[in-house]
Amino acid sequence: QLQLVESGGGLVQPGGSLRLSCAASGFTLGYYAIGWFRQAPGKEREGVACVSTSGGRTNYADSVKGRFTISRDNANNTVYLQMNSLQPDDTAVYYCAAAPPGVRCRLILKEEYLEIWGKGTLVTVSS
Q1: Do the beta carbons of residue 108 and residue 35 sit within 8 Å?
Q2: Residues facing 125 on adjacent strands
Q3: Phi, psi dihedral angles at 74 (to 5 degrees)
Q4: Which pLDDT value is given to residue 64?
Q5: Over the chain, what HEC string results?
Q6: Do 31 and 45 form a contact (C-beta atoms < 8 A)?
Q7: CA gap 42, 51 in Å, rounded
Q8: What is the pLDDT of residue 86?
Q9: Are 93 and 122 in contact (CB under 8 A)?
Q10: Sign of the alpha-carbon dihedral angle for 77, 8, 85, 46
Q11: Contacts of residue 52, Cβ cutoff 8 Å, sequence gap at least 6
Q12: Is residue 105 within 8 Å of 59, Cβ to Cβ?
């Protein structure tokens, strides 16, 4: 089956950093644009970041600009989300999802054209 598996979540203090990974199984991740999403307790899911198939184009939610960086290593079938300066408001379950090539990142962040979803990894920011 086509699967995405997130990893790297955990407990971190405010101001700390984490790097999340999104690994593909059963398909070539390089054929897909990838988005990261999160859902905090009691809130709706929101788009966080996206990256094009080649990694040449990225986009971010205003709430994470300057703090989060999305990147990809197509040779290893993996997309990353580097999260710096984490704050309690960043606490959420983080998901990655895949869209066909050519889909604009701004549309991906609105959850359009997504075909494959991971099950999520929990990030908790607390002192």
Answers
A1: yes
A2: 12
A3: -65, -30
A4: 98
A5: CCEEEEECCEEECCCCCEEEEEEEECCCHHHCEEEEEEECCCCCCEEEEEECCCCCCEEECCCCCCCEEEEEEHHHCEEEEEECCCCHHHCEEEEEEEECCCCCHHHHCCCCCCCEECCCEEEEECC
A6: no
A7: 27
A8: 98
A9: yes
A10: positive
A11: 33, 58, 101, 105
A12: yes
For residue 76, what pLDDT is reported? 95
| 118 touches 4 (CB < 8 A) | yes
d(C-alpha 94, C-alpha 96), whole Å:
7
Q: How many residues does the chain have?
A: 127
Q: Among candidates 3, 16, 35, which has minimal Cα distance to 91?
A: 16
What's the pLDDT score for residue 100? 86
Apex 121 CA angle, 118 and 127, nearest 5 = 160
Residues in the chain predicted with pLDDT less than 50, given as ranges, are: none
Compute CA distances 29 → 26, 39, 54, 103, whole Å. Answer: 9, 23, 10, 15
